[in-house]
Amino acid sequence: MKTTSMPEKHDIKPGQSLDLLKELHILTRDGRMNQDSRRKLKQVNHLYQFIEPLLQEVQQDHSDICLVDHGAGKSYFGFILYDLFFKQHGSGGSRIIGIETRDELVEKSRALAERLKFPGMSFLKQSVAEAIDSEFLPETVDIVTALHACNTATDDAIRFALKKQAKFIVLVPCCQAEVAEVLKKNKGKALAKNTLTEIWRHPLHTRDFGSLITNVLRCLQLESQGYQVNVTELVGWEHSMKNELIIATFKDLPRRRPTERLNEIIQLLGLEEIGWRFSAANDSNNFIPQ
Ligand SMILES: C[S@@+](CC[C@H](N)C(=O)[O-])C[C@H]1O[C@@H](n2cnc3c(N)ncnc32)[C@H](O)[C@@H]1O
Asked: Which residue from 12, 26, 77, 156 could staple onto 37, CB 3.0 to 4.6 Å apart?
């Protein structure tokens, strides 16, 4: 049985609904929490500090915010965001749309949003890739988030964000195996060419380097589309193994250099067969976000 204790002052943000935290099973019925839920809440609250200024920036431009959260899972993040920001500062037309493939999670989130009277929250049972062309989503959105969205779902979320001309893209990538697989497959060929291929010769290094280079390519992909990219840590490593936080802001920056570098790295590492993942697949080269 997990040991529980009463939340410390710093565990809960001012104004945060204890009832919501109970509904999300972060707090027990008698208001206690265990180590797992403390860690989860710390992560989400920490992430909120990064997102709040982005929401405020969108609001300076227009009042109705549209945020799409990919791979929403149980939608902890969406509900807490709604509770802390949308409920208090959001306009009537602001909304959070959760995208999730698991039916039971979508149904539960819908029921919870109804119970909590969070009218601006909705959920779609769709894959991220399906959402790109879904008729149920608006033409443009302000903020796209994808937190620990599995494997290549993060890449699909980037394509979604580019197509929807998102001003902000917030990613906490999960492990991505695809790049490591291609590196592994091409090892024999690549090893002959360049001493630097030692970086991914050993299987453990192939996996880790594959994961690192995936995020490097994602950053360059976003920069090649005019975004300014910041990479930081979500929380200390002791709380989560996957703690890289990528925040991209559309600034219409020059695209040539990041595009060249992106293509160079893809060629250098022999990743041409999956190069399309990191290209401007939606031909959205010259968009200006809403
Ligand atoms: C590790 S959970 C993360 C949940 C939540 N974002 C969080 O950080 O707590 C990943 C979720 O993404 C969903 N998922 C995985 N691949 C997906 C895809 N291609 N499209 C939509 N959802 C996906 C899974 O069903 C799962 O609920």
From this structure: 26
